[in-house]
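quick one if you have a minute, typing this from the bus. theres a chain ive been looking at and ive put its sequence and its fold in token form underneath. please have a look and point out which stretches look like helix strand or loop to you. anything you notice is useful, everything is just below.

***
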Amino acid sequence: MNNDFGSTGATRTVLAEYFRAQAAWRDRVAEDYPNDSRNHQSARALEHVANVVESMSVEDEVFQTVALLQCDLDVMVTGEEAGRLAGRYGFDGPFPSADDAERFIRAWVNLYAHEAIKTQLDVGEDMENVRELGRQVLGPDELEAIVDQAIAFELDLEWGDDA
């Protein structure tokens, strides 16, 4: 876990590169499906998101959130749902405005944060450290719901269906 608030500039760069990588993937998919313009449309929308990320202040809370949760500032690692959400952005519907892109970024970071904290709980990170991080990033109610899910999941693993 990276708790260095000074790294938000690097986090902004990594996040923009992540969305550009998603755009490049959509462009590769478009080569396999040349009659489906939605892949190119999604790629352009993801490039737009990357540009909006780069235009946001490094002091924006989205970068502080990601900086708190991201272990490696060179590569953006996401959960399954955050990856799916990014990969489908702009696939259907009109080209998004800058406001749409910023709303998407904030929603995406929220999902990313939920998945990152849940993953840390699932892999057995120190519960108190994860709780403190969750309080900073999610707030107490959202954090407790995730902790309850992780505890229930862990009990299911330990006791099986007989519990």
Q: What stands out?
A: The two ends are 33 Å apart (CA to CA). Residues 5-162 form one domain. Confidence is low (pLDDT under 50) at residues 1-6, 153-163. The CA atoms of residues 69 and 113 lie 7 Å apart.
